[in-house]
Amino acid sequence: MLRTIHLRSRERKHVSTRNSKIHGIGVFANQLIATGQVLAHYDGRILSAKEVKRELAAGNRYLLELPDGRVMDGSTGNDLGRFFNYSCDPSAYFEYREGAPLIISSRPIPRGEEITIDYGFEPIEVTRFPCTCGKPNCVGYIVARPYHPMVRRLWSADSADNAGMRTVRG
Ligand SMILES: [Zn+2]
């Protein structure tokens, strides 16, 4: 079983959900958030191998592989984790504490800004998940940052802005 780490209420007051310009509902900073702040759990049901195959085929983009190899379906979660949108210039990242995935801020985030993460998607069927983050460095697809230069080269119309490999935080 996944161990639950209870967030202090002070930490939950830092963020809230509302409509996002990127996609559906997003998570926003209620106040200036410092680097390294725990923002939310990523929680949900642990799937069997059969269920993972079914959900992947159905295009479920909330699947998260845990360090021990189990796969969690964030779409069934109770905390705010599932509402964090992807962007090509993320402000938070996944970190595992006692095996539990948490979402942590990777830079200071001003009040009112939507907080985004890197979903870490492999570039398989990359065109299936278009990105609408609107960041200046958007590659056009939801894909892990180390693959951005390659995806930009192969799929994006704007191939001039090839900044090279970036480091993944966390
Ligand atoms: Zn983008």
* CATH uppermost class of the domain at 2-43 and 78-121: Mainly Beta
SSE pattern, N- to C-terminal: HEEEEHEEEEEEH
Chain oligomer state: single chain
Going by CATH, the architecture of the domain at 2-43 and 78-121 would be: Beta Complex
**What small molecules does this complex bind?**
zinc ion
- What is the total tally of β strands? 10
Shape annotation: globular
Number of helices: 3
Structure commentary:
This protein has 170 residues and is an alpha+beta fold. It has a domain of 86 residues: Beta Complex (Beta-clip-like). Helices cover 12% and strands 24% of the residues. The protein contains 3 helices and 10 strands. It has a 4-stranded mixed beta sheet, with no helix packed on it. A 3-stranded antiparallel beta sheet has the order 3-9-8, with no helix packed on it. The longest helix has 9 residues. The protein is globular. 28% of the residues are buried. The site of zinc ion has 6 residues, from loops.
